[in-house]
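Batch 3, record 17
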Amino acid sequence: MSSGPLSGLHVLDLSTFVAGPSGTMVLAQLGADVVRVDPLGGATDTRRLPLAPDGSSLYWAGLNRHKRSVSLDLAGEAGRAVVRRLLARPGDGYGILVTNAVNQPWLDYDALRGVRPDLVMVHIAGRPDGRPAVDYTVNAEVGLPWLTGPVDSTRPVNHVLPAWDLLTGLHAALSVVAADRRRRATGRGELIRINLSDVAVTTLAHLGFLADTAVNGSTRVREGNYLYGAYGSDFATKDGHRIMVIALTDRHWARLVEVTEAAAVISALEERLGADFSRERHRYAHRDLITAVLNPWFSARVRSEVVDRLERAHVLWGDYRRTEELDVGPDSPVAASGLFEAVDHPGVGTYPVPGPVARMRGWDPPRPAPAATIGEHTGQVLAEWLAAGEAELAGLRAAGVTR
Amino acid sequence: MSSGPLSGLHVLDLSTFVAGPSGTMVLAQLGADVVRVDPLGGATDTRRLPLAPDGSSLYWAGLNRHKRSVSLDLAGEAGRAVVRRLLARPGDGYGILVTNAVNQPWLDYDALRGVRPDLVMVHIAGRPDGRPAVDYTVNAEVGLPWLTGPVDSTRPVNHVLPAWDLLTGLHAALSVVAADRRRRATGRGELIRINLSDVAVTTLAHLGFLADTAVNGSTRVREGNYLYGAYGSDFATKDGHRIMVIALTDRHWARLVEVTEAAAVISALEERLGADFSRERHRYAHRDLITAVLNPWFSARVRSEVVDRLERAHVLWGDYRRTEELDVGPDSPVAASGLFEAVDHPGVGTYPVPGPVARMRGWDPPRPAPAATIGEHTGQVLAEWLAAGEAELAGLRAAGVTR
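Prediction for the assembled complex:
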């Protein structure tokens, strides 16, 4: 395993779907040794869409890179005993488990502490009361779908990004490293529980939603593509492209007015309205009017001219791209990042795969690589962690505990 | 400062807006000593909406809890010298800086290493080439707005949650703890750069978007409120409520068919279509038809009956709430979490504030509390970290370096 900031950390990953796997993958990218343990043949997330023509899951491959794969008969006592032995493996940085298993008494923290008294365990769940929840139900319950979409929508609009899963995964990853840090200092392990619904509602609290209701009695309403609390709007160019333009600071605003040659109209409007658009709150309050004033400048110009002018004026803007264009062109997010390499996935094809998103100067991160196949490292990990010899491995295979 | 898994970590936070502050707040909630350093009077994010009637920012208060606040004249050399002294403070766990400052040569990593050779510094930026970007421009550029919203939309639909900011903040927090871990082992510091645009495009890669285009030539299209790759749909009840229902596993699907009394129709449809809805891919392919079949069951019943039936059948579902209802009722996300306390904010009002989202059994986390006022801890931190006496503090005040 490559060395890195988290080298020396050995994580047993029994998590599935997005939250856990995305978090443990970040740990692996930072140099941790992450061993994903799956049932024989793979867990319920092994075949999730999108699939490659060979039936393998491109989604699974994307969320499980840089991990080793151990596959065991987790329904049987012998397979579970192997998991316990892996957790009991002595040494600093071992004895760490991430799971989202539901109703699995054999993964009970207190039971597992019997084999590893200083176990660090992160349990990801839907809700604090044990009832299930997933990203889409949680997102509905915190109210964002009623605030998303065109102002004249009469239905809620779901998000497409599983943001709550991804945030939960990073909270789990951070908790692993934090708990291991304390364990190194005190010798004490920790049971950490992180619920998707808690992540969502605490995040909305951090962003001021609860306070705004309690203190101001505010009822948030749909604002379409406007940015809440400042001035930001999407515009269409003459050739049908759309771009997002943001004036987050007073300087951004001054540049935007200048480049769109709107100073005289804006001044006259300010006078008529008794407003001062150099103040963020006034820009936000009059966002519809401002967009109406600026619109003709954008719709009279093709994208290339608009972009050229905005860039020269240092206005903050972004293209609305299509996801299939993420790696198309020298300005594409993939090309611009420099974090991606074209990686050949045998039997599937070649496509760009990113390295760690945190760029560290003093460390060469692991190269982007295909994810392991299910059970690819069973023998290797059992030999390495448990000093299992050929005879023992053959016995486990013969007993159907491994393949 | 309360002790916790990250006690002993001392972070100087010069970050603003959402990404940095949200990440450092999580560090503080896990027990790190986070000192936010602002210019005199506060940074550009100090007055962001929503505001309380007294003009204070509820948004700022939500993102900066559990931190101490130091305020300095950062435009002048004397104030910057104080920051350097704070970073140079000897001792394990000191010498950590998080910033999103742009074009500030005095915050150059190599310059700061002159005062603290093992400095850990996280620099959050928009794009790798130094050009600015914010959550809304980055989201446009990775293509999600064209996939969000009703299938008949002709315009992109922005998300409301600043998901890229929040994910970037957690990546930054994880990087701080990871880099400090390596520093304890090797004595080496680290410069870590995290760009919003990288976070967005690597995340979409992890979720399989790039692979799907490269391998399958897929062009993703809008799917409204359906869940990608499985069966999930929103439904309206007789009394006008909306709920999200998900069949992520085969067992979920079986329960949903049973509770909606749809088994006979579903069987007949499977036969007619040559489909097998016990398979996830077939459910996903025929999602429109399935929703049409199930719709009448929901629209014939009031919400309370629907929920009662779904709950008893253990179907995975969630209400579409409004953000202003987050803390309303015993089933509300706030009440259910148990992480919130009603906290009095002097001059503002009382509203619910959450503790850390990661629940740890062996640790009493810091109690939810109001955020500091700008500069509230200037004297305290300078005395504690720099052993500044009353005479020195008075001198700094007299020179206008502090207030």
